């Protein structure tokens, strides 16, 4: 069984599969740690961080797929499982194998992304991979991460996009509405952000179909896959 860590409920729905148990972070690292501990105490054999992310490298574009070689967070680096990472990258045409940065707060401004890129040299960032990587490491489980870029490194997200997530991983509509009422001039930027996110979600859905066979056949070396 694979425990798949996502930030959004929509991501969890996109990757739904009988062999996958999703755990949604909802932007709260502490809650995610607790939910992961509950699931990993059952029959988990692998941990996969999967969903959308923000680019840090200026070379990445919306829709690019990142398969993490390592996760960098708080001055530590956690490598991903070598053979599983290699197989995931082979199954997704054009996937970039590169470091991911794990962050607890969204990097919404392009200047913040640039600083994080300079500090970590990670190609992209998300708010779940570091939590998932640490949980997998503490239990000796194989870990991998696959993320799709939804906002480029030079893109600053509008305020409404930064308050859109609720603790269950859904959309906080009231938060978005209040943000728009306070600053209606952000509407064009929000629409563009939503459109680029749709591109990323579409790519993520394609990845899910490309990876379904790999969930059953991934080569984990000495680690057998639990078909349950």
Describe the protein:
It is a single chain. This protein has 8 helices and 8 strands, in the order E-H-E-H-E-E-E-H-E-H-E-H-E-H-H-H. The chain has 228 residues and is of the alpha/beta class. Helices cover 42% and strands 23% of the residues. Residues 216-228 have low confidence and may be disordered. The chain has a 5-stranded mixed β-barrel, surrounded by 4 helices. It has helices spanning 9-14, 29-40, 82-91, 110-120, 129-139, 159-162, 173-182, 187-217, and strands spanning 2-6, 20-24, 46-55, 65-73, 76-79, 96-102, 124-126, 143-151. Helix 2 (29-40) runs parallel beside helix 5.
Topology:
Elements: E1 2-6, H1 9-14, E2 20-24, H2 29-40, E3 46-55, E4 65-73, E5 76-79, H3 82-91, E6 96-102, H4 110-120, E7 124-126, H5 129-139, E8 143-151, H6 159-162, H7 173-182, H8 187-217
Parallel strand pairs: 1-2, 1-3, 3-8, 4-6, 6-7
Antiparallel strand pairs: 3-7, 4-5, 4-8
Name some characteristics of this structure:
228 residues; Rossmann fold; 8 helices; alpha/beta; 42% helix; 8 strands; disordered C terminus; single chain
> Could you say what the CATH architecture is?
3-Layer(aba) Sandwich
Name the structural class: alpha/beta
- First-residue to last-residue Cα separation: 6 Å
Assign the CATH class: Alpha Beta
Strand elements, count:
8
Order of strands in the sheet with most strands: 3-7-6-4-8
The low-confidence runs, each spanning 5 or more residues with pLDDT under 50, are 216-228
Portion of residues in helices? 40-55%
Q: How many domains is the backbone divided into?
A: 1
User: Any idea what the shape is?
Assistant: globular
Helix-strand topology string: EHEHEEEHEHEHEHHH
Roughly what is the average pLDDT, rounded to an integer?
88
